[in-house]
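Message: Just now I want nothing more than another pair of eyes on a protein record. I am handing you a single protein, as its sequence and its fold in token form. As I understand it, each token names a local backbone shape. Take your time, and here it is.
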Amino acid sequence: MAPPIVTRFFISLNEHKWLGIVVFAVITGGSFLFTLVPEPERQEDKILAFGRLSVNSPLPTFTSAGEELRNQGRLTNIQDIISQQVIQNIANRIDFNLRQTERAVADLVLGLPEEPENQTRENSDTSARLITFRYDGGRTPEESRTVLQVFLEEIVNESYRVNTVRLQNKITDLQRRLAEVQEDVEQAEQNYYTYISNEGALLLSVQDGSLFGGITSSEQQKRQLDVVLSGIDAEIETLQQQLQLTPEEAYVSSALSADPIIANLRALILQNDLELQRLQTDLREDHPTMVELREQKALNERLIEERGREVIGTDRVFQPITGNVRDASNLDQTRAQLAARLINLEGQRNAVAGQLAAVEQVQNTLRQEYEQFPERQTQQTSLIQEVQSQRVLYETIFAALTDAQSAEAEADSSFTIIQPAFLIREPSPPVPPATSPILIVGVGMVIGFASAMGVIFLFATLDERLHTPRELQDFFAERDVPLLAELPMVENPEPFRKAMPIIFESDSPYSRFYERLRSNIRRLGGDNTKVILVSSVIADEGRTVTGYNLAIASANAGKRTLLIELDLRDKNPGSRKYFQLQADPALSSNPISYYDFQGVNSGDLNLLIQRVPEIPNFSIVPSPGFQKQAPAILESAEIKAFLRYARSQYDFVVIDTPSVSSCNDALLLEPFVDGIILVTHPGKSLRNLLGTTIDDFIEEELPLIGAVINNVGYDNQIIEPQDDDESNFLIRNDDDENLSFGDNVENDAKD
């Protein structure tokens, strides 16, 4: 038994043989055309100009700038040196125009840098590398040598100029940078000097301890003044309790008591009071003497008030205290001494308080300066560091400038002409012997055959069809779908029925296969399985033929069998092709009423359900033909009632429907059937579409009984009836199981 991939390859070979022939012919023709290419002729020897430059080895240098310049020169590429100025210099020396010189320089062949032959591992870092140039673009060999020699000399000169310019640029940059850094140094020093001028005394006082001593001294003075002030406050408080006067009141009373005018006025007022007290017992209030005394008293009181204001002043400082001048001016000599003492103590207290405030202010100032000392010291350190860093940078740049100026004497070219331009004859390459045309064509045929087979194999790999029954068996086994039967292609010996794959005779050798299918349906579906829906995934898989032969096998088994053609999208139904049965035009004019068996009499029912005379127990409901409104007909109540009638009147009912991929007609009838059979065809069934359909059936829990493999090839000895008991077992020919019969099926075997 051949593997499935081999079978696929032969099927692809049969389908795409012309493409393979074209691929083989194209490649073979190409190899034949290759043999017609003329052989190359031997070229003449060339006279080339060669020259060598060496990258200068690092010589002893005394400056770092010179060492850096030499290292940069060793890393310089020749292409970087070839500038427009170099090309112009070469053109001037060899009398070429600029375009000719550019073309000549472009034609120069630059070899990779190579090491000298006598170089060893020890001196590999110090040996000079060699760069080889080749040129053959001159009109004469001598012109080529001259061009190459001038080119080498200009490369050396340009390298020297580049190194010199690099050094000069470095010196210029260092000088400019040195001037900038010098300004930064001067600015940093000026900032430091200014800071020291402003804050130096404070920093010095902190450093030598004088500031801390001042703070300590001020604290001691403050404590002493606090003691003195406390004593003065205690004495003032004692005097205030004795006099019942504040220092301000004592001052006013002392001033008023010391004035002689106020003393005389007080005496007059006192005399008036005495006269009034003496006369008020003898005289009435309105007596002229009494009135005169009161007027004198009022006058004296007004005068004493005015004199009090004159003594105290008009600045209104003591006005609230002098509300009664007479009472405020009654100090005797002792109380006057105490008041003077109180006023003196108040003055001392104010003086001591002023000294204490001044000491506290000085102390706070010293403390604030002491607290700011770390910040100012940090600022001083920062300024010192800034000056030092700028000086270090200045010294570094100055040293680099001195080094670069000293390196001017060491500037040199990075290349040296180690070998001037010279001429050499280069032999032309030998012409390889011609390959035999027969060998070329033979190799082309082999490649063409392999390519053709590869293309055919690629098509075989990409083919989605299941070509062999073995592939279909494995496919159904992967999805746990029962395989009900493997059916052969029915062939009738009668000439007029040769194109009809229908079992017309009950003793046909193909009846056994469909009887096995019927019994497997009954075994797997159950005894109550009466209504079977036969469908396929795509068209032309033998769905209609399988349904007809299954119904005929049931009729031959003695079952009253009915086949209902519900493929309302087929313009040429099987009943017309195989049995010349047609729906009654009177009934089929209205497709929905066509299946209304309750609205017709028994005679019209025979026109709907037509018996097949050639096969007993077999009846057919012919299709009314192609219908545009097929879903509406299948969903009508008449179809449902007719299917219930068929279930009750017949032992076995087979329904022929369109393919599942073309429409949903089969799924619309699923609720009214007991099981569904999927018909497959080797070489036509598509793997992905078939798998998707089966997965949908399983997911939606549709009553899928199993699948049928149609059009399987068997040996004639197996199909023909045999007399021994082994005829009951159907054995398929393994040599033929992998063959696809898609090309052998006649058009009448299609749906």
Notes: Residues 15 and 456 are 9 Å apart (CA to CA). Residues 114-127, 722-751 have pLDDT under 50 and may be disordered. DSSP finds 27 helices and twelve strands in the chain. The longest strand covers residues 415-426.
